[in-house]
Design goal:
- By secondary structure, the protein is an all-alpha fold.
- It has a single domain, classed as Chloroperoxidase-like (Chloroperoxidase, Orthogonal Bundle), CATH 1.10.489.
- It contains nine helices and two strands; from the N terminus they run αααααβααβαα.
- It has a two-stranded antiparallel ribbon with strand order 1-2.
- The longest helix is centred in the N-terminal third of the chain and has 38 residues, at about 5-40.
């Protein structure tokens, strides 16, 4: 039976999630209301790597711990130097590069500004500020050092190899395999992520599956390596379906359910 302390903790985590979601939704609605006409009627060009070839970043370019945004900058969907992008820049780039729906692209952009408490221009390096959007237990990069304010902005090949090791055939990864990678990563810690960053971590995986997964919901390992390690769109990729906010939420719920089942099965195994 759950203890009083665990019930209180569960309620508090739920309240934090609801408060953040409501605040972000309110700001998203406000932003869309103020600039609705410009956003809706802005033309979104067709995805093309001929128009947006990969150009590696220089040591002076601003980059984040997020491979999705770094890839957009490396291909010129965002300013290549990664500096001073506006909300419109981020919304446009997310829609062009990943075919995110307008509500999802707007929600992600506005929530990023809310979590960082920055409401005008945003450079990619700003996203590395620890425990705002970036969090411990990342599948792709090491934790922020206690003496540092900003997380590493380069992926860890060793950590990512641990993720790919969960692929049953070495060719594709399923939702359950990505969930297993998250369970393994989190199992090395004595504490859990807070409610907000739990949601962010699962949402990241949900969008990876939604954007890169085929009709069977499996993501090619080669695509993951090229995108995650090299921060470059893989050859042959084209976002041929739209990823919506509802798709992302549903995917996050499925990942949470899979992780909970794995944890429950592990706790019931005989020692």
């Amino acid at each position: 039976m759950p203890t009083m302390k665990s019930r209180r903790s569960a309620v508090l985590r739920l309240l934090i999630k609801c408060a953040l979601a409501m605040a972000t939704l309110a700001m998203t609605i406000k932003y869309c209301t103020l600039e609705l006409d410009d956003i809706i009627h802005e033309p979104i060009e067709e995805f093309s790597l001929e128009k947006h070839p990969y150009v590696p970043p220089t040591e002076w370019d601003s980059r984040s711990p997020c491979p999705a945004l770094n890839t957009l900058a490396n291909h010129g969907f965002l300013p290549h130097n990664g500096r001073g992008a506006t909300k419109k820049d981020y919304i446009r780039a997310l829609r062009q590069g990943y075919n995110l729906s307008l509500p999802l692209a707007t929600f992600l952009t506005v929530s990023g500004h809310v979590l960082l408490s920055q409401y005008s221009h945003l450079s990619l390096a700003d996203l590395a500020r620890h425990n705002c959007i970036e969090h411990d237990m990342s599948l792709g990069h090491w934790d922020t050092l206690q003496t540092q304010e900003y997380a590493p902005d380069r992926p860890s090949e060793w950590l990512f190899d641990r993720v790919l090791a969960h692929s049953s055939d070495g060719k594709r990864m399923t939702l359950c395999e990505l969930a297993a990678a998250r369970v393994e990563r989190e199992s090395t810690y004595a504490h859990k992520l807070d409610a907000v960053h739990e949601e962010i971590a699962r949402g990241e995986m949900s969008m990876v599956l939604g954007v890169f997964g085929g009709k069977d919901g499996r993501v090619p390992v080669d695509w993951l390596k090229e995108w995650w390690e090299n921060e470059r769109f893989p050859e042959g990729f084209k976002p041929d379906h739209q990823q919506t906010l509802l798709d992302t939420v549903r995917g996050s719920w499925k990942i949470r359910r899979a992780m909970n089942e794995m944890a429950q099965n592990a706790s019931t195994k005989p020692t």
